Structure to design on (178 residues):
């Protein structure tokens, strides 16, 4: 495994606590693709972004919807206790392409949002909700606005141009402001 930390890290989870006495940990996932991210053989970078070190997953299963993983070199409960609260990262360059009309959250954050008349709505500051019910959190001129991430409302998503064009139903932008 390489000793160098890549610069394109994306958060996929956080270690919640130890599990058992074999060095395994329970993870709070921060991804819609937990089965893919937390599988045997996957290399995750563990720790704070600037100090994350690569570790290979040697054991993986799910318990009550959360991954329970073991890492190479973490063989005891004492070793695992040192990982509590640690951030788990994956290299963005290792992510596979997604199906049409599906986007990685990090690709949407920072995109400018405009309506069909090219009027600025704001900028995407977060994407929340599960994969099938995601919504964009927009920092708009009058505060936060929530916009469902569905093709009938988000009519054009161009991550390359960092642009989302929306055709919101009447009242969505004003009713949804926080």
């Amino acid at each position: 495994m390489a000793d160098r930390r890549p610069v394109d890290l994306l958060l996929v989870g956080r270690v919640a606590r130890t599990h058992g006495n074999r060095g395994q940990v329970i993870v709070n996932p921060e991804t819609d693709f937990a089965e893919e991210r937390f599988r045997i053989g996957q290399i995750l970078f563990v720790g704070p972004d600037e100090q994350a070190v690569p570790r290979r997953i040697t054991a993986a299963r799910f318990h009550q919807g959360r991954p329970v993983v073991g890492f190479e070199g973490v063989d005891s409960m004492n070793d695992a206790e040192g990982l509590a609260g640690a951030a788990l990262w994956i290299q963005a360059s290792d992510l596979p392409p997604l199906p049409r009309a599906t986007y990685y959250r990090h690709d949407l954050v920072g995109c400018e949002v405009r309506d069909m008349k090219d009027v600025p709505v704001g900028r995407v500051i977060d994407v929340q909700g599960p994969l099938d019910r995601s919504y964009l959190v927009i920092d708009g001129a009058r505060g936060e606005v929530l916009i469902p991430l569905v093709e009938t409302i988000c009519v054009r998503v161009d991550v390359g141009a960092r642009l989302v064009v929306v055709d919101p139903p009447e009242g969505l932008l004003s009713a949804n402001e926080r």
Remarks:
- The chain is about 10% helix and 45% strand.
- Confidence is low (pLDDT under 50) at residues 1-5.
